[in-house]
Amino acid sequence: ELQDIESFWIKGVSAKELGSQFLRPEYAIKDLLNIADSGMEEHVVRVIDRDIAHGLIICDVENYGGLVQRAKTTIMPSWYGVGGDAEVVCHFNEMPLRLRRNMIKRHRLHDPEGALGYGGHNAELVY
Q1: CB 48 within 8 A of CB 89
Q2: Mind listing the pLDDT tens digit for each residue in 2-25?
Q3: How far apart are CA 21 and CA 44, in angstroms?
């Protein structure tokens, strides 16, 4: 059931609509999707989630603190510490758990010293 809910949500169906469809309260759907722990609007979370999957989002703690940034084309400039045309999305710890987990899983968090409290991680560069 969770895979069905997640699949519909990724395609743009709101948590409220999914709650009606799966006979659960909206907050329960948001808890299942790990998006309830943030003040971000659903559509914003969905866009960031998609951009993480496409390699357009990174958090380079070493050079930019905990700021999460989105590149306009491919993942950031080819080396860390160069701002390029990146725009700030938010702080890493302001994101819902779903996005934080996806960034770690997809190697989009560059925090070798573990300053954010998620252990040491090195992001993979995409050229």
Answers
A1: yes
A2: 889 999 999 999 999 999 999 999
A3: 22
